[in-house]
């Protein structure tokens, strides 16, 4: 899954939240905390999280400190002067 696809899903979720807001208002239910501004802010946080999550996953996958096997690989690389 690409970053653009994740952003599309988050935008879709924001649209769904907006639809829920309209449904609740039609039924006469009003919540001060659920408004278009809070929905837009929530979607913005989700979209800003995408690059962070991808970068964190990349760092996690590229470190040699996660598993025992990875630690052994790191030692071998250091022995061979490759790290």
From TrEMBL:
Keywords: Membrane, Transmembrane, Transmembrane helix. It holds the Pfam family Holin_SPP1. The keyword Membrane applies. The chain crosses the membrane at residues 9-33, 39-60. InterPro entries: Holin (IPR006479). One of its GO terms (cellular component) is membrane. Its main location: membrane. It is found in: Membrane. This is PTS mannose transporter subunit IID. The lineage of its organism: Bacteria, Bacillati, Bacillota, Bacilli, Bacillales.
């Amino acid at each position: 899954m690409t970053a653009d696809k994740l952003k599309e899903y988050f935008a879709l979720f924001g649209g769904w939240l907006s639809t829920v807001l309209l449904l609740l208002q039609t039924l006469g239910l009003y919540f001060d905390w659920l408004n278009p501004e809070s929905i837009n802010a929530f979607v913005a946080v989700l979209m800003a999280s995408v690059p962070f999550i991808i970068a964190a996953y990349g760092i996690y996958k590229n470190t040699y400190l996660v598993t025992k096997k990875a630690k052994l690989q790191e030692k071998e690389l250091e022995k061979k002067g490759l790290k």
